[in-house]
Each structure stands twice: as structure tokens, then as C-alpha cells.
Amino acid sequence: MRSNKLPEHGVTTTILAIFASIFLLGSGSALQNTAVVLRGSLEGFPDSTIGIISAAYYAGMLGGSFLAILVIKHAGYVRSFAAFASLASVSSLAHVLLIDPLAWILLRTLHGLCLSIIFVVVESWLNVAAPQALRGRILSAYGIVYLSSMGLIQPLIGYFPPSGFELFGITSILVSLCLLPVTLTTVQGEALITDTKIRLLGVLKKSPMGTAGVITSGLVAGAHVSLAPRYAQGMGLGEGTIGLFLLVFSLGTMAMQWPLGLLSDRSGRRAALLASSLAGTAAALGLGIVPGPGPLLTGAAFLFGGFAIPLYSLSIATVNDQLLPEDMVQSASALYVFYGLGSVAGPLIASLGMERLGGPALYWIIALILAGYAVFGLSRVHRVPGFIIRGSSESYHTYPRTSPLTLQFLRRPPRKRRNTPESSPEAEKPPKSPRKTRS
Q: Which parts of the sequence belong to the Major facilitator superfamily (MFS) profile domain (predicted)?
């Protein structure tokens, strides 16, 4: 029977310290992104150049998540954390000293790499500290902390203009402060991360719809997070309003996590994926055609955040249903690569459209991407009316898009499964029908 016992005092303190560190780190990351986009626009950088600068950050995040293994093996967790937090803080300030597109591309790559290594270290500690019986709830809480950090910091844009030094200085302070909670807390146990081969095609074959959803989420989130400040600027929103506008997206995401998760658990992953992509398409079209600031723009932003952004967690849940416990380490790394490639490509594609067609093209392109995924999903439902859950179906959780470790958080050791319709040996075999059974 699953225990609901709360973790001991020492473990609770450790988890809260890790959450505090993640909140500070997420806040700094989100504020830096907004400041870079708005400042780049004020400096006269073309939209395509801003897209490249934004994509460089995600390229750094993707590379850093795997470089972290080598760094930590060489320097250890604490020294790696301290070194790269300091380097990330320096890179934040350097943006103001080197106002040049090429310099910013390099700095954003470095910043993404540093933050990615920090996330790997912190999530390794969280993986050690979290009691097995409470991992699902701790993962969901972690996701909410990360999402809220990215939204709640945005109103600062209204108090400090992006043309000045202050926003970059605050980013540096936040990243530096993230050192304090975890370095002053003792983490019991040994944090381990393992190098592993990445099998992209293996994951794609196990769950085409789930994997395609991860790629789509990368394209959508990468483009939206990177270029939404530029879109808001083009819509005539003032600096004080842009931060509140970006907060609305995050509020929508947090508000719809539970309803979409409930739909996913009760009506099936496919139903939730289709609801997310179709409603996200409609909301993106709304953002693309709304003439200017007002209730319609705010409502469309809330709905877009509520339906389009959770596509990532829904897709991860879909893939996990098709995995055996021993497959999850390799699959987590593969899924993070798929997401990373999408998040690099998203800003590049969307920024080219914005440069040629104007700011609203950002959400026209996103609507096209989501609609394409919805069509693919409907085709999968038509071709494969039902599918077998090959692994152990877990409840829906909010997965932060930070490192492959969050995707391994609920991993359990291999065990013999009970002889149930979903997990019996007969269920493992494809049915005699020529139809395939992958989701």
C-alpha cells in the first residue's frame, strides 16, 4: 500500500531548499530571456537575429545537459554547481558590456550551458532527497515552482526599463542567490547520474504520437518563450504591461495543468493531447488576429498558456506508458534531445516569419505547427484505434523542461508485473490484427 507519510524534517528542509534554489534560478533565466529580447529590439537587431540569439540559449541548454556528466565526474557536484552558477552570473552582466549580436549569441549559448549543468546538479540532489512514496507529488510541486518562477518575475519589466542595466543586474543577482539554499543544506545520500547511449529511433517507434508531441512542444515553447516579448512590443504594449502580459501565459499554464491531467488520466492520453493541440491552435490563431491590446488579447494569452504549453507533460506521460522501467534512462535522454532540437528550431523558424510578415506571424506559425500535430494525432487515432500500455501507467505529472533527470524522476527498478490485461505476457505481444499498437 502506498504510504502518504510526510518526509522527515531533514528531508523536508532539503527539498524546500532545492525548491528555493530552482525558483531563483528559473526567475533569473526567464527575466534574462525577456530582457535580451526587448533590449535587442531597442538596439535595432533584426527579428531573425533575435531568433538566432534565442535559439543559441536552447542549444547551450541541450549541450550542457550532456556535458554535465563529464563535468560532475571531474569536479563533483558542489564545485560544479558553484562554478557554473558564478559563470552564469558573469554572462548575465556581460550582455550590457558587449552589445553586439555575435557576442550575445556566444553569451546566450554560455548562459544556457551553465544553467543546464546547474539544473542537472540540483535535480540530482532532489532525486536523492525525495522519498519514493512521495515522488509523484514532489515532481508536480517542482514543476509548479518552476512554472511560477518564470511568470512571477516578469512584472519587474515594468519597474526597470530594458534599455538600462538593472534587469541584467537583477538576473545576475538571482542566479548568484540560487547558490545559497543548496550550498547551506546537507543532502543525505550519494547523487548519481549515469552516462547512457541515446536511442532516438527506439523511442520514436515505441510511441510516435508521444514523441511527435515532445518535438512539437519544443518548437512551440521555444518560439513562444523566446519571441513573445517581441510580439508584445509590436502589439503596442508598454514596458510596464509586457511583464503582466507574459505573466498571463504562466497563469493559464498553471490553471489548466490539473484539468488536462485529469482528462489525460480518465479519458486517455490521446484525448488530452488532441484537446491540448486543437485548443492551443485556436488560441494561437486568436493571438495572431487580435488587432491590439484588450480583453481579447489577454484571454487568448491565458488560453494559449493553458492548452499549448502543457503539451510537453502530456506527451511525456504518453511515452512513459509505453516504457518498461529499465528503458526509462535511455528514453529520458532521447526525449530531451527531441525537445531540445525543437526548441532550437522554433525561434529560428518563427523569427524569419516575423521579419517578413510582422509580429503576429509568431502565432500564425505556432498555430500551423499545432494544427499539423493535431492532424497527425487524428491520423494515429484512425489508424490505431486502441493501444496497449506496455509499461506501468503513471498519473499525469507536471514535468519541468530543464534536464533529462526530471524525466527519470519516477523511474522504478524492474520488477515482475502482475498478470493483468495491460501487463500480461499476452498484452506484450502485438495483436493478430495487422494494425500496430503503438500510441
A: 206-439
What is each CA distance from 295 to 6, 151, 183, 245, 388, in whole angstroms?
A: 43, 19, 45, 11, 44
Domains and CATH numbers, the chain: 7-187 (1.20.1250.20), 197-409+424-439 (1.20.1250.20)
Assign residue 438 a region (left: φ > 0; alpha: ψ between -120 and 50; beta: otherwise). Answer: beta
Closest by CA to 173, choosing from 24, 362, 336, 26, is 24
Q: Where are the alpha helices (DSSP H) in 153-207?
A: 166-177, 179-183, 200-206
- Pull the grid cell for residue 434: 495487422
What's the pLDDT tens digit per position in 41-55?
999 999 999 999 999
- CA–CA dist 195, 35 (Å, integer): 35
Better pLDDT: 136 or 272: 272
Report the C-alpha gap between 199 and 261 in whole angstroms. Answer: 28
* Residue 274 three-state SS: helix
Selected residue with higher pLDDT from 398 and 99: 99
Residue 403 clears pLDDT 70, i.e. is over it:
no
CA 311-317-321 angle, 5° bins: 145
Determine the Cα–Cα distance for residues 91 and 107; give it in Å rounded to an integer.
6
Nearest to 141 by CA among 295, 291, 293, 18: 18
What DSSP string runs through 283-301?
A: HHHHHHH--SSSHHHHHHH
Running DSSP on this structure, what letter comes out for residue 406? Answer: G
Distance, CA of 116 to CA of 281 (rounded, Å): 30
CB-based contact 399:261 (threshold 8 Å): no
Q: Does residue 30 surpass a pLDDT of 80? A: yes
Tens of pLDDT, residue by residue over 70-107, are 887 788 777 888 888 889 999 999 999 999 999 999 99
* Close Cβ partners of 302 (under 8 Å, ≥ 6 residues apart): 248, 249, 251, 252, 255
Whether residue 366 contacts residue 223, with contact meaning beta carbons closer than 8 Å, is answered with: yes
Extended strands (E) in 27-138: none
Is 118 within 8 Å of 178 (Cβ atoms)? yes
Distance CA 141, CA 289 (A): 35
Greatest CA separation for the chain? 67
Among candidate residues 21, 309, 278, 5, the one with its CA nearest the CA of residue 142: 21
CA–CA separation, 378 and 91 (whole Å): 45
CA atoms within 13 A on the CB side of 423: 13
**What's the confidence (pLDDT) of residue 205?**
82
Rounded Cα distance, 384 and 199, in Å: 24
